[in-house]
Write a structure and sequence with these properties.
alpha+beta; single chain; seven-stranded mixed sheet; about 775 residues; six-stranded mixed sheet
Length: about 775
């Protein structure tokens, strides 16, 4: 619809009326600040999102000795933990995590599993439900430094160690734990570690994690984090130094967190030379070749080797061991410091793993360091085994295996590259930027998935990333409220875990970067968060506040909508009204009205009367005509022209120019927020000459009315179409209401020959056919009934 504004004053009045109409808010104010929802700032955690002047965190150092029993798939171990209390509190007891206890028959995790019986169930599913696996830590002793037993209480996956006297601030205590446990068959029991058995060569591959009792976190914001481990909520751990000695069969290759301390004792001379070559190599050097690994598969050493590793300022430790391992390595420099990138994998992983794994590790370290903080650990390892994807400091376990003939699908290739990027990336979130995984999965998985997306795009142009692009999350966000939960929810309570904790937060950050903040502001704020909280324990409030503090962008509306609700993006362009400013020149305006009148369609009555009425009475009797039969109301009179001239002389030159500006086009656009999630309006305008322009209207346009707004757009060229979110960058769930004029959604249908319904199966007939002898089958002619 095109309308003419009578004067510039009319424009101003219309704008005032539109603003007045928007002052009535709809429902809860989506732009209300989050102060009442976030914890009160204090000297530990500031209002800016930075650690406060009194920030503290605890420390746990470990000296661990474990022995792998390859014949029984079991582990025995002994550790000494030195716990330092840097809090202002006296601690009468300590809490230790016993994560292997999730595999006990009567664990809370097993008891609270839900599910339904189905018509078809896999052997693995039934095995899991009926398993007699004797899992969990078998704690043999917990003793103090003096060798005396300490009183302990085990509550499922948590063990309380009662101290002889409260541990005072700035004091340390050492105690020892002796234990053993049966290693899980990862394909049967699942979990984040375990073994894989290779029937062809009768060998085992071990990926070992949560293999030792670990200290829980005691923090300023919640005290002890001792929520039970139920499976989804992962691990929250303090930083410390580790010395770990791993005794394994002598023909095993062992890789682990940290640096190998006794290479001369456990590696061959050839392997030591190859290690030196890897320090200056531009592509991975094979420490153990495939031929050597295949030959080693038939070895059955009766002796053992002890591999000793040391790691400083890490929050955890993991390792892998097998006689099947191929091992390659390549050193890179990151921020001037050497990082040895390595991969361990059986021959079943080739050719994929030899070609890609270590290259992906190196690429991930470089790219994450660019977007966060420089990687400061000396090694980064990717291991291929039964665990599909799991992360630990300096080492991770990853899936992605080709077929036996060495071929693989595109999905397997990119799935393997993506999982390696993701798990190596976890070195940054949460291994260094050490968020509380037990409570907030999104703080490690979501932030990590976002940087994974950036890293994938720098690996290969148009990389088929699974998560990150807004269009990929739209279908999930459009699901019913009872099928999803807010991001800000405990890990164990989240519905659609992958979308909730990985996809949606990763997409939210991508939208912040590309659409809300822009890359420069976002990248600086995101890097500031990483720098502030490296090797510390951040909370969601620290992240939210830092992103705003470092950018000067008020994002409370964004956190509220994306993280605290299940609302979705669905912005509709409901109507467009077109205006031009009146020149108030009677010569111009009356001529335009004449053209409008002439162009107006003749009514159907007038069309038929022209044929049916041969002569009107006035036509028959001209004496009936008077002044009005010849009067032209659009003819310009001298008086009208004089009034126009007088009005024109009263205007300033600038006002006269505005009045005669016939090139400006005014459009009033009505927008409605259907999905409830306030977002910027990305508006594409296509002009009559087929050129296009993009305008991004900030989300604050919704601040006075969260549900419906109008906006006046002024253009020099006439617009033939308006489209919201043309590049699908806001996760809009319904594109059918984004264009004006409306654009039909393109789709296709198939033509097919209608089939007669098939008769139901006839068991009697099938039985008769099955029992007939070959001769009888030959004798039965078409149409005969047989015997």
């Amino acid at each position: 619809m095109r309308r003419i504004l009578l004067a510039g004053l009319v424009l101003a009045v219309a704008g005032q009326q539109a603003a007045t109409a928007q002052t009535t808010n709809s429902g809860t104010d989506k732009f209300a600040q989050l102060e009442t929802m976030l914890p009160t700032p204090n000297s530990y955690r500031t209002a800016s999102g930075a650690p406060g002047s009194d920030y503290w965190q605890q420390r746990a150092d470990y000296d661990i000795k474990v022995t792998l029993d390859d014949a029984k798939q079991a582990l025995t171990g002994r550790e000494t933990i030195t716990y330092t209390n840097l809090s202002p509190d006296a601690l009468p007891y300590l809490w230790v995590q016993l994560d292997q206890n999730i595999f006990e028959k009567n664990s809370i995790a097993n008891a609270t599993q839900v599910g339904q019986l189905q018509d078809k169930m896999s052997f693995q599913s039934v095995d899991a439900m009926t398993s007699n696996f004797d899992g969990g830590f078998k704690i043999e002793a917990v003793t103090g430094k003096d060798g005396r037993a300490l009183h302990t209480v085990t509550n499922n996956t948590m063990m309380r160690v009662d101290l002889p006297a409260p541990l005072l601030p700035r004091q340390s205590v050492s105690f020892s734990v002796k234990w053993h446990y049966n290693i899980t068959d990862q394909y049967k029991q699942g979990g984040r570690s375990g073994f894989e058995y290779f029937a062809d060569d009768k060998n085992y591959l071990y990926e070992m994690a949560q293999f030792y009792p670990r200290m829980a976190v005691y923090s300023d914001n919640q005290g002890w984090q001792h929520k039970q481990f139920l499976g989804n909520g992962e691990f929250t751990l303090p930083f410390g130094d580790y010395k770990v000695s791993i005794t394994a069969p002598a023909d095993h290759i062992v890789g682990a967190t940290g640096t190998l301390q006794n290479a001369a004792q456990v590696l061959t001379g050839t392997q030591l030379k190859r290690w030196e070559q890897a320090k200056s190599a531009t592509k991975p050097v094979l420490m153990v070749t495939q031929d050597e690994a295949v030959k080693n598969e038939s070895s059955r050493a009766t002796g053992t080797k002890t591999w000793t590793f040391a790691a400083k300022n890490v929050r955890d430790f993991a390792w892998a061991s097998s006689r099947k391992f191929i091992w390659d390595a390549m050193q890179i420099k990151q921020n001037g410091k050497p990082v040895m990138c390595m991969s361990y994998y059986p021959k079943e992983g080739n050719p994929l793993w030899g070609q890609y794994s270590t290259q992906v590790v190196a690429h991930t370290i470089k790219t994450y360091s660019k977007f966060t903080i420089p990687y400061a650990y000396p090694v980064a390892i990717s291991v291929h085994g039964p665990v599909g994807g799991m992360e630990y400091p300096m080492i991770c376990f990853n899936g992605g295996r080709p077929e036996k003939d060495g071929t693989y699908s595109q999905q397997v290739k990119y799935g393997m590259i993506s999982v390696i990027i993701h798990e190596v990336g976890h070195n940054f979130f949460p291994m260094i930027i050490n968020s509380d995984e037990r409570q907030w999965t999104w703080m490690d998985e979501g932030l990590n998935s976002f940087v994974q997306f950036l890293t994938e795009q720098e690996w290969e142009r148009n990389y088929p990333s699974r998560r990150g692009e807004p269009r990929n999350i739209a279908a999930y966000m459009a699901t019913a409220d009872n099928l999803q939960s807010p991001i800000m929810i405990n890990s164990e309570s989240a519905l659609q875990f992958g979308n909730n904790a990985y996809g949606k937060p990763a997409t939210a950050l991508n939208i912040l970067r590309e659409t809300v903040m822009g890359r420069e502001l976002f990248d600086y704020a995101f890097k500031t968060y990483a720098q502030r909280w490296a090797y510390k324990h951040p909370t969601p409030a620290d992240f939210f506040r830092t992103m705003e503090d470092a950018s000067a962008v008020d994002l409370d509306w964004f956190w509220r909508g994306w993280f605290y609700t299940t609302e979705h993006t669905d912005l509709a362009l409901e109507s467009v009204k077109s205006y031009n400013a009146s020149t108030r020149n009677p010569q111009v305006e009356n001529a335009r009205l004449q053209q409008q009148k002439a162009a107006a369609p003749q009514s159907i009555t007038a069309q038929r009367n022209a044929n049916d009425i041969k002569q009107t009475l006035v036509e028959e009797k001209p004496e009936l005509k008077d002044f009005y039969n010849s009067y032209d109301p659009l003819a310009v009179t001298p008086a009208e022209q004089q009034r126009y001239t007088a009005m024109l002389s009263s205007l300033t030159p600038e006002q006269q120019q505005r009045l005669n500006d016939s090139q400006s086009n005014f459009y009033e656009l009505s927008f409605r927020n259907v999905g409830g999630l306030v977002m910027p309006i990305v508006l594409q305008m296509t002009y009559a000459d087929n050129t296009q322009e993009i305008q991004t209207i900030p989300a604050e346009i919704w601040r006075k009315n969260n549900a419906q707004v109008t906006k006046v757009i002024v253009t020099k060229k006439p617009v033939i179409s308006f489209v919201i979110d043309p590049f699908q960058q806001t996760a809009d769930t319904d594109l059918s209401n984004n264009a004006f004029p409306r654009q039909p959604a393109a789709s296709r249908f198939e033509l097919f020959e209608q089939q007669r319904p098939q008769a139901p199966a006839n068991p009697m007939q099938q039985a008769a056919k099955a029992s007939a002898s070959p001769m009888q089958k030959l004798e039965q002619k078409p149409g005969s009934s047989g015997n």
